[in-house]
Amino acid sequence: MRAVFSYVKPYRWPAIIALMLMFVELFVELAQPLIIAKIIDEGILPSDGTAIWLWGIVMLFLSFLALGAGITNSYFSSHVAQSFGFDLRNALFRKIQSFTMATYLRFPTSSLITRLTSDITQVQNVLFMSLRIMLRAPLVVIGSIIMALLVNAKMAIFLLLGVPFLLVFLIIMVKKGITYFSVVQARLDRVNRVLQESLQAIRLVKAYMRGQYEASRFQKVASNLQVDTVKALRIMELIMPVLLVVMNLCLLLALWFGSAEVRSGNAQVGDLVAVVNYAMRMTGAFSMFAFIIIAFARAKASAERMEDILLIEEGTEDRAGIKEIEENQIGTIAFHNVTFRYPGTNVDVLSDVSFSVSQGQKLAIMGATGAGKSTLLSLIPRFYDVTAGEVYVNGRNVASWDLDILRGMIGFVPQQSMLFTGSIVNNVSWGKQNAALEEVQAAAAQAQIHSAVESFPDAYETKVGQKGVNLSGGQKQRLSIARALIRKSHILILDDSTSALDVKTEAALWDALAEEETTMLVVTQKVRTARDADRILLLDEGRVVGFGTHEELLSGSELYKKIAASQQEVE
Ligand SMILES: Nc1ncnc2c1ncn2[C@@H]1O[C@H](COP(=O)(O)OP(=O)(O)OP(=O)(O)O)[C@@H](O)[C@H]1O
């Protein structure tokens, strides 16, 4: 909890003010039964109208004081809770951004979303309640006991009887609640995951007519959530009746003894009324406590889930390193005996891979699906660290570069084009901060998408729907390429990013890219594309089985010859 609640620190003064205001409310609450006793003993019983008026005015004044304190407390409490939630959410988001890919893959996306939404809300609510009422409840209990003891110790002692039992009972319930609500939040993760998958794959779901199936999959996880939430709440709902029974028993005992005391003249009626009033307030505070304990148990479970993220030290990117780029090495890439396996697995996806690319060269990477092409590319911007061997970019081991400098040298187009909600110009200039419209247009022209964009009614201001749904696959791919081209980077990596382009457009794209001095690594399935490259790297099950020009491989690699023959690219 400490890591999460350290985010309250910047708001300690508003929090302290809120707590002080809460004490004002508490003071009024505890003073009221005394005043009622005064009205009875000094006003009603001796029929003294002035005393009734006097105490009435005091009571009215205190009520207004409590009202003002309550409103101001709400203002400060919500300010603290909302600001805390805002800061915590940003800190979590930044922390996730700093994760290495390996750490990132440890958490399902849906779970990260739940942690940044529902979990934060739970904790925020409890913080608000704490400042508003949580501390008040135990203080009302303690204060009521003290006041009742002061009014009439013999009567008040009966109210104390149930307290130890209730405290033990509440501690047990909180512990149980934390366990149960951890399960509930994990169930919520599952609901979010299925929801996310089904919505993302909506076209697939429709095409395969799997609506019913998806609905039942959703129903299953939603029902698990419902069952476990009910289970958790049922346990928690035990708190209230147990509390009431215990407190009412204590009250009955106090009444029974108190009325005997009044009859025998040892106590005044006002004393009895005040003690009963304090007992009622204690019961109310305990019930409030029960309500808060449910929220607290839930928030504790949520806070622990957030701490799982906040407290990760290893597994975040080590960003510091060399910043100076040596001119004579720009755009060079070399793999030296690189072996790689994904963290947590025991299979080498790349084995002893060695090759080099000189400045401005174009390397085509080919191989069957699963051969390790994407994995190889992901080692260049250091998404993962190699298991053995070294990867060099611009003459230096990628591990020694400052991560921002390294990634700044690379334009990366992933296999799946991803567009963000916003305009086309936003999407392309996402690749380079503060890019001018001319730069966006030039990159788009190079990526062969400029004329298509110009033909849209809003041209570059056209809004791209969620995940780019209002654009064709080929258009999305070309916008992704434009986003990489605008960076004017030393190295351009295209991971099968032209698969949706027609032959003519693709040829025009390669022609435009040929004018660049950028070093290019292009994953492709097409021999037609590979043959124009300076070198072709042929991968098979993570091993290099061919490296050379199209002609060299045609004469030296049976596998390449087979691929070329299947695509009728043999002369
Ligand atoms: N995050 C991961 N964790 C564990 N294994 C992975 C992960 N990503 C990929 N793999 C495995 O690594 C191997 C190589 O995958 P990779 O995506 O590099 O192949 P590829 O040649 O790019 O294939 P494709 O042409 O189909 O994209 C595959 O066997 C795959 O199962």
Automatic annotation (TrEMBL):
Matching Gene3D superfamilies, A to Z?
Answer: ABC transporter type 1, transmembrane domain, P-loop containing nucleotide triphosphate hydrolases
Q: Which SMART domains match?
A: AAA
A single GO cellular-component term on record: plasma membrane
Q: ABC transporter domain: from which residue to which, for each copy?
A: 333-566
Q: Where is the ABC transmembrane type-1 domain?
A: 16-298
Give the matching PROSITE patterns.
ABC_TM1F (PS50929), ABC_TRANSPORTER_1 (PS00211), ABC_TRANSPORTER_2 (PS50893)
Question: Topology relative to the membrane, per the entry?
Answer: Multi-pass membrane protein
Q: What residue intervals traverse the membrane? A: 12-40, 52-76, 133-151, 238-258, 278-297
Q: Where mainly found?
A: membrane
Claim: Transmembrane is one of the keywords in the record: yes
Task: List the keywords (alphabetical).
Answer: ATP-binding, Cell membrane, Membrane, Nucleotide-binding, Transmembrane, Transmembrane helix, Transport
Compartmental location: Cell membrane
Among its keywords, does the record have NAD? no
- A single GO molecular function, which one? ATP binding
Pfam hit, one = ABC_tran
- Name of this chain's protein: ABC transporter ATP-binding protein
Give the classification, highest ranks: Bacteria, Bacillati, Bacillota, Bacilli, Bacillales
